[in-house]
Write a structure and sequence with these properties.
Blueprint: E1 2-8, E2 12-19, H1 22-28, E3 36-40, E4 44-52, H2 62-71, E5 84-91, H3 93-100, H4 102-105, E6 114-119, H5 125-128, E7 150-154, E8 157-158, E9 164-166, H6 170-182, E10 187-191, H7 200-212, E11 216-219, H8 220-223, H9 229-256, E12 261-265, E13 271-273, H10 285-300, E14 305-311, E15 316-322, E16 327-333, E17 336-343, E18 346-348, E19 354-358, E20 363-369, H11 387-393, H12 416-434, H13 440-462, E21 474-478, H14 482-493, E22 497-500, H15 507-514, E23 517-528, H16 534-549, E24 559-569, E25 576-579, H17 584-599, E26 608-619, E27 643-649, E28 652-660, E29 669-671, E30 674-677, E31 682-685, E32 689-693, E33 699-703
Parallel strand pairs: 1-5, 5-12, 6-7, 6-10, 10-11, 14-21, 21-22, 28-30
Antiparallel strand pairs: 1-2, 2-4, 3-4, 8-9, 12-13, 14-15, 15-18, 16-17, 19-20, 22-33, 23-26, 24-25, 24-26, 27-28, 29-32, 30-31, 32-33
Helix pairs in contact: 3-9, 6-7, 10-15, 11-12, 11-13, 12-13, 13-14
Length: 706
């Protein structure tokens, strides 16, 4: 049987497959340059494979093509689905739809057109939003484009205590909906005042929309049953906009894999059955797989305090882990505000493709990216200088250890000569403008220092600024470019340990295989935390648990229940999440400890308010084992380097040995400067760092005392 874990990224689709089928392995062994095959215990193998996400001349969908390539099936043959046990996927389809706003460009595509139905008098409430000013000195305010095309105001109203002030005019609402339906719109978002508590009017309108024939009906009290009209409304509109796009993609995959168990990764780090995958849960589908992969592999390696660092071509994602996944309720992704639980991931526009330029007085890195086309200058497509080029200039990336996939025929190595030429030219321009003489390699190192500082600041935001001491944490690096800057990031932050998993280059896909099925339900409370509220909260938790369990296939295994409450001081807006217990004093103590750590003070005289409550039902899944490797070389025999190259670090050139990761054995120790190359990434061990391989094939880098 075959288990497939896939992450469909913006540039590459990563696939990790687990199989016990000897025939598949025998077939793939002929293509060792394309597939990485690892032998597991119990007659099983792991297959690692990467392919371009978009390649319309060759295939329609990368994940399906990956499965075909692994199974050795041509594009016109049906996939033998009886040989596939499960497919678990993360996808950027929803994120890309938000970023590109394809709905605006394809106005005639009924799937992407949305109508908003909102309480009369609040037609422009979502457009006004919270009147945030990201750039406080901007004289011309550019409002974000709305995801809905039309607005229907419904004359209805409940007050905050549940009294019906204005009943719904059914006939008027029906004619308004019918008129919009005739324009070709098939997706609607229904958002009424106070409907998180009193949903009757929303239910009436939803019933009308269903009778008329709308194919996507997103209702705010189901999508985000929490107070705050604007955030609840924004989330509902996002769901109405994305779910049809997502449904089309899911159906496309499912049609190729009939009768196969198909699961998708949600933004909260849990898996869900394909038919239950919704737009509101899909925004961070891919990055969430990376966080799960980083956390679970770090725990297997014995690390409990983890900063995850995922550096790709365009962006870098960082997250904090201290015993449990951190989630946030309010987030803004690609200009769309959301109020659903998502993993707390901080993303910055800094990656291997971030463009380097000199503005006449200072060095600049990003935020624009060279992408994969044209890509950095060394990609042979006449691209601009980028972070990857700086590493080529510094001797940290060498063309002979990088895939030869460049040039017109896609068979040439990286172009080191153009990198040296362009940095030499840039150094001359900088000298002419500033009268400061710098060598080309010093210029490249200067740009790298800025890129590293930007990425380190992203980590400070989720750790130091929230009261966590990062020197006690391990830096879990993954993504194609993470290993090149890991030591520099750790040095900047004062971190002492770095963890690199053997599948670090495809950890987001591997994370799909390590994830559990999770269902989260939350509801607004907005009442003071007192002992008399506890029985009500207990009943609420039971109700939420029943709802969450309905999403989970309970036949297969036992489930774990996690109950949380979001607390805040009366008169404030900042909530902190604590575990729900029957003791008010315990919850208050937990809240105060977190508040003190985060903000540096507590307010003993203030009443605590329970803003909302949530229940998470977790179903543990079977996960791939990782083999132990055995040392065959004598302990006193050091690993042999492949060659010695020149690398620029700490403002001078070093003769630096290059090692292949597959040549390393447990208890091998390498002192920096050194370079470790593997099939899917390059790891730079800077001076004053030491790399050790463990029996689980984990590479752990440790800073040496000066």
């Amino acid at each position: 049987m075959l288990k497939v874990f896939a992450d469909r990224g913006g540039t590459f689709t990563d696939i990790v497959a687990v199989t016990n089928n000897q025939a598949i392995i025998d077939n793939l062994s002929r293509y060792s340059e394309r597939f990485l095959i690892v032998t597991l215990p119990n007659q099983q193998w792991i297959i690692v494979y990467k392919l371009l996400s978009e390649n319309p001349e060759q295939y329609q969908d990368a994940a399906i093509q990956g499965i075909r390539d692994i199974m050795g099936i041509s594009s016109n043959e049906p996939i033998p689905t009886e040989a596939i046990e499960v497919v678990k996927m993360g996808t950027t389809v929803a994120t890309n739809a938000l970023l590109e706003r394809k709905g605006d460009a394809c106005g005639k595509d009924s799937v992407l057109r949305v109508v908003l139905l909102i309480t009369k008098g609040f037609k422009d409430a979502l457009q006004i939003g919270y009147q945030n000013r990201p750039n406080i000195f901007a004289r011309q305010i550019i409002l974000p484009t709305m995801l809905y095309e039309q607005v229907i105001e419904i004359d209805e109203r409940y007050d905050a205590n549940g009294n019906e002030l204005i009943p719904v005019n059914i006939e008027l609402a029906k004619s308004d909906l019918q008129a919009v339906y005739h324009t070709g719109i098939r997706s609607c978002a229904i958002v009424f005042m106070h409907s998180d508590r009193y949903p009757k009017h929303e239910q009436q309108i939803a019933q009308l929309a269903q009778q008329i024939g709308f194919t996507q009906i997103s209702i705010s009290h189901q999508v985000s049953p929490l107070m705050k009209l604007v955030s609840r409304g924004d989330t509902t509109v996002v769901d109405a906009y994305l779910t049809p796009i997502l449904r089309r993609y899911v159906n496309q995959i499912a049609s190729q894999l009939p009768r196969v168990k198909l699961m998708f990764m949600k933004s909260d780090g849990g898996l869900v059955a394909a038919q239950q995958f919704q737009g509101k849960d899909s925004i961070l589908s891919g990055p969430a797989g990376g966080i799960v992969g980083a956390v679970q592999t770090s725990k297997r390696a014995g690390f409990e305090l983890v900063i995850t660092f995922d550096m790709g071509g365009t962006s870098t994602d960082v997250a904090h882990f201290k015993g449990e996944y951190e989630r946030q309720l309010d987030s803004e992704i690609a200009g769309a505000r959301m109020r659903v639980p998502v993993l707390a991931i901080n993303t910055i526009a800094a990656g291997g493709g971030s463009i380097l330029f000199f503005d006449g007085s200072s060095y600049r890195v990003g935020p624009k990216s060279a992408g994969s086309n044209p890509g950095p200058a060394c990609y042979r497509r006449k691209g601009p200088l980028a972070v990857t080029d700086a590493n080529v200039m510094l001797g940290k990336i060498h063309p002979q250890y990088f895939p030869s996939v460049f040039g017109i025929d896609g068979n040439l190595p990286l172009d080191k000569d153009t990198v040296i030429q362009q940095f030499t030219q840039l150094a001359e321009e900088i000298q002419a403008a500033t009268l400061n003489y710098c060598t080309p390699e010093q210029v490249a190192a200067g740009f790298m220092a800025i890129a590293v500082e930007n990425m380190a600041n992203a980590i400070k935001k989720i750790s130091l600024q929230r009261g966590y001491d990062v020197s006690q944490y391990v830096l879990c690096c993954f993504g194609g470019a993470g290993g090149q800057v890991a030591c520099l990031i750790a040095d900047t932050l004062g971190m002492k340990k770095i963890f690199l998993h053997p599948y670090a280059g495809v950890l987001s896909a591997y994370g799909m295989g390590l994830a559990d099925v999770r269902a989260i339900r939350e509801v607004g409370v907005e009442q003071p935390l007192t002992q008399t509220l506890i029985p009500k909260l207990h009943e609420l938790m039971k109700h939420l648990e029943t709802q969450a369990r309905s999403e989970i296939d309970q036949v297969r295994s036992q489930v774990e229940i996690v109950q949380k409450v979001n607390l805040k001081y009366e008169g404030t807006n900042s909530t902190l999440t604590v575990n729900f217990t029957h003791e008010v004093a315990v919850m208050r103590q937990d809240f105060e400890a977190e508040h003190k750590s985060r903000y540096g003070f507590i307010q003993l005289e203030k009443t605590l308010i329970v803003e909302s409550a949530s229940v998470e039902v977790i179903q543990k899944m079977e996960t791939p084992e990782e083999p132990l490797i055995i040392r065959t070389r004598p302990l006193d025999q050091a690993p042999a380097s492949v060659e010695t190259v020149r690398m620029f670090s700490t403002d001078r050139w070093h003769d630096t040995p290059v090692y292949r990761r597959e040549d390393l054995q447990p208890e091998d120790s390498i002192n920096g400067p050194a370079i470790v190359v593997e099939k899917i990434s390059t790891i730079v061990v800077e001076p004053n760092w030491e790399a050790k391989l463990t029996e689980r094939n984990h590479l752990v880098l440790q800073r040496l005392r000066h």
